[in-house]
Amino acid sequence: TLSELAKFGLPAILIPLPNSAGDHQKKNAIDVEARGGAVCFNQNESSVQFKRIIQNLLADTEALGIMRKKMGQLFRSDSPKIIADDIRKEIKK
């Protein structure tokens, strides 16, 4: 999902699963948030807080524009090559 969001420069509110393997969803969501492309929301927070986040984002088109740009900057078109190169390195070990 993060790759698709980045490819199209779509800002997001990310709600990571709390029981994902190695807590990877939370780590990724926090990283994307720190880079300015998304807002990370803990599913244990109230629906009132979630609604407030949505309202604030919709009211601030400038912030959404910045988030779009930041999310788009996260896209790596060369990621398949990077993954393939890493696999080749592992096979050679």
**Radius of gyration, taken over Cα atoms and rounded to an integer in Å:** 16 Å
Mean pLDDT: 93
How far do the termini sit from each other?
A: 31 Å
Number of strands: 2
| Largest beta sheet: strand ordering | 1-2
Task: Characterize the biggest β-sheet.
Answer: 2 strands, parallel
- Number of H/I helices: 5
Strand content: 5-15%
Low-pLDDT runs of 5+ residues are none
Tell me, briefly, the overall form: flat
User: Helicity, in percent?
Assistant: 55-70%
N-to-C order of helices and strands = HEHEHHH
Class per helix and strand makeup = mainly alpha
Topology:
Elements: H1 2-8, E1 12-14, H2 24-34, E2 38-40, H3 47-59, H4 61-73, H5 79-92
Parallel strand pairs: 1-2
Helix pairs in contact: 1-4
Label this structure with key terms.
93 residues; two-stranded parallel ribbon; flat; mainly alpha; 62% helix; 5 helices
Task: Please sum up the structure shown.
Helices cover 62% and strands 6% of the residues. With 93 residues, it is mostly helical.
Outline the structure in words.
It is built from 5 helices and 2 strands, in the order αβαβααα. The mean pLDDT is 93. It has 93 residues and is mainly alpha-helical. A two-stranded parallel ribbon has the order 1-2. The protein has helices at residues 2-8, 24-34, 47-59, 61-73, 79-92, and strands at 12-14, 38-40. The protein is 62% helix and 6% strand. The radius of gyration is 16 Å and the shape is flat.
